[in-house]
Amino acid sequence: MDPALFIASTVIVFALFITLRYAAECYIRPFRRCRSCHGRGRKPNRIGHGTHDCRRCRATGLRLRIGRHIWNHFRALHRDATR
Length: 83
Fold this sequence. Notes:
Largest sheet: 2 strands, antiparallel
Helix content: 40-55%
Structural class: alpha+beta
Distance between the termini: 51 Å
Order of helices and strands: HEEEEH
Number of helices: 2
Strand order of the largest sheet: 1-4
C-alpha cells in the first residue's frame, strides 16, 4: 500500500469517527453546561456582592449543543417542506 494513500485514508477514517461520535453525543445528550456560568445557573455580580441569574442559559445551567441546534433546524425545514 502506498504510504500517501494510507495516511489519507487514516485521516478520513479519523475525521469520520470524530463526526459520528459528535453526532451521537448530540443525539444522546443534547444539552451541555453553559460556558458563561459553568453550569451553575448563577453568576457573581460585577461588584462582587451576591449573584444574579445567568442570561445565556436562563438560570438552568444548560445550553443546547451547536450540532443539536443544527439538527433541529434541518428537522424543522423537513417538517415544513413535507406538510
